[in-house]
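subagent[fold] <- orchestrator: predict structure for attached chain, return tokens only, no commentary.
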Amino acid sequence: RAKRVKLDEGAKLPDLPYPFGPGPEVRVDVPEDVVIPTFLEMTGPARESLRQATRAWRWDAFSYVLHVPTYPLATLMKHMLFYSSLGDEFIPKHREKQLDRFLVAVDLHYHRPIRNPAEDRVNIKSTAGGGEGLRVGYHNVVHACDVLQSTYAYIHFSDLTTHQPCPRFRYEMLFAAMVHDLGHPGVDNNFLVKTKSQAAETCPEAPLEHYHSRFGRIIDCQFDGFDFTTLIGDGAKLNHRYVKWDALVPMMVMDTDMSRHADILRRAGVEDASKWLPPREDAQWSNLVEKAKEWSTYCEKERIENKKLSTFLGRFQVYRETSHGGLLDRVRTLQTLVLKAADLGHLARPLRVHKEWVEVLFEEFWALGDREAAAGLDVNPLHDRLNASGVKLAESQVGFFTKVGLPLFEALVEVLPSTRCQLDAVRTNLEYWETRLAEETVKEAKAGGGC
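subagent[fold] -> orchestrator:
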């Protein structure tokens, strides 16, 4: 069985060292004969939770990991790949063992949760394995499962499947979701920069995202499923460049950095990057999905033709693509919007589940505040457990919803109208925090002797 092996008793926080690795605290060992449990081998709540992951928007990652404790992320990903037929398209039978080893390695490079709220609901203690290692409140293997399921839902329950006939785009989106927070140690980029982490020295702008995006070098298991090469032409020019397939997934992972929001909007053609909601009359937004469809249809045609011709460059299969009027960039923008919405997917989860995500998020924040204090840094007010209050918590959520979450989901509905159910859920959860803020403010005023 694959496991995480503790290497250093004194190590409490991986420094995300380079050359790449999961950190000084653990080493991930994945045997050649590792086995990922399949849907047909499961029973009871585990099987039902896995079934719902590919059938419904409303899904609970906490409950899923409680009932699927062994390689939950790897199990979810493999089920989605083959349930959607993407696995049959891209992964030959003789490479399935390589796939299993790779998926398990990704799974175990995520830290395990400090606690799982689902345990409290049913009074059952999880047997979630993974071996030794750091425990992280929010950015852990459960979060990875949640983002992966949200991404799958956006692909298969919205207009995206209709407008993205090319399976390669859907394939890479799932992998980007799976690896987007690989090895996250529960701290933010600001902390890594201020403590002069080796990761920050390598990429000071976004050390965490840079680390996550290098999954191909971090994980020793070589998986040939990434050995596709794209031949991209520069319009009418005869110059071409080859882009390895796994260079495209890291681009999406890097774009999950919150500081890149404005840049993504500029790429989408929004003049005022401070306003997430694109105007309905903006043709660049209203036509984005149609343009993505046009590009995907072209790529799919070329992919099928090349497959028939069995065209190979060494061991890399070649896809002949042209810049096609810059549509590739617009497709990437659409993919990035979907991945960002999935990354914030708990904002649209049922209220009970969403509130539990906020609880574990603040557990991670407060643990980070303790580390900031121990490092002699100014403690971010949001990370200060000693001065935490109901008002501050509710204020932070109202602010995040109104400035980031709600505008993002409104923008997504502009290009994928069938995601409106997600926008409605975000609005419902925002209303809860607005009501709670008012109540907490009154309660605090009464406690302080105010009127």
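orchestrator: received. Logging for downstream: The mean pLDDT is 77. Strands lie at 3-6, 26-29, 112-113, 135-136, 228-233, 240-244, 312-313, 316-322.
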